[in-house]
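Example 3.2
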Amino acid sequence: MDIRIARENMGYFTKKGALAFRFDATGKDGMVVSQGNKHTCVLKIDESEKVTRRKLILLVRRVVYEALAKKYTTVVLDFKQFRFPKIVITDEELAELMATNFLMAHFAFRDFLTKPKEGWPEIKTIVLTNAGTKEVKAGIERGKIIGEEVNRSRHIATMPGGHMTPEILAKHAEVSVKGLPVKVRVLGVPEMTRLKMGGVLGVGKGSDAKPCFIILEYFGGKKNEKPVVLVGKGVTFDTGGINLKPSDYILGMNMDMSGGAAVIHSLAAAARLKLKKNVVALIPAVENMPSGSSYRPGDILHSMSGKTIEVLNTDAEGRIILADALIYAKRYHPALVVDVATLTGAAMGALGERASALFTQDEKLELQIRHLGEATGDYVWPMPLWDEYDDEVKGTFGDVANLGKTRYGGAVTAAVFLKQFVDNSYPWVHLDIAPRMTTLPDEFLAKGSAGAPVRLLVKILEKL
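Structure, written as tokens:
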């Protein structure tokens, strides 16, 4: 999709397939009004004073949604139409937000669909008028990079499990940063054995697809500057292992590596944006399968730190592999570690599907990340990480148990489990993105992965 700026718009309407938009509090929603060659779609919105940033993001996406549904190939928009009294935003920020969400709304996963004879609906050009400034141009370029990386994350997260094993994910990581100043290393079973990564090895041993540990390093900042480390859960398919999931819960578990996809493409975005920051991404990648070699309920795994993990349920595997990654992160003496994981159904039970669960004991970080979530559209909401919960994950036969002592507060006890391996070594944020794994019908995004929280992570790297 080409997003361009033009001083005037009438020339575009002499071509077949150009659509303009008008936002109206009283108009007939979705109606196309034609005057000669000019076709205008009316979108009904709240009164201008009631439009919030959240509604703006949906409005931007809906422009693309309506144009695709009506099979127009060119969209012409007045940039000033997207300014609303309640929203404090610069021209550059607005242009970035628009470009990112134009691309997100245009994406669809069609790798295994037969292309129709007439081709897929496609918008080739979006023209912005009344937007001829350097700031807007810069915002568009930034927004396109972020939108492209969000969509690339969505693409690999939606890929079927048979086409996205740990080894394939590692190869994808290498391809994703090809040509960028990013160093990639992939640790296999021998290297992880030497490092005593018993968590990753234990979970991964039940599958024919061998586990691996993916490391990406982008050093765009000063040499002595501590990096931000992004840790992403990379379970490329999760059956639950010996504690096999019920049928209704297995479908979609190819997206259990959404956290890994997000951190790969957040780092790629940072490199493409040439952020003057040092960033590391760590992705423990496994397939959790039931077999004769699978780890069992009751097994004791030795983590990289030496702490032992008592396995009470093999379907609580994400926290086990993340434990080794959080320990490995200490090697970088990080300024901040953010781990991202589709970790618990309990987070969905608490928050629904509108926001990721945010865990940190740093109140300043919590507030900053909540604000960045609102700004980007990757919404997060805080959950408790109190020390009083520590006893919930104390093991009987191992140091730490991978389930809490009751069936309540599962998102919290999962976060508290991870906390035992951070051990106050660095500032830390845990994002349970299970609620945001897939898109919702009213978001004007195609079915499949939602791409959370790439937009948020990029802003964390930029702002914090």
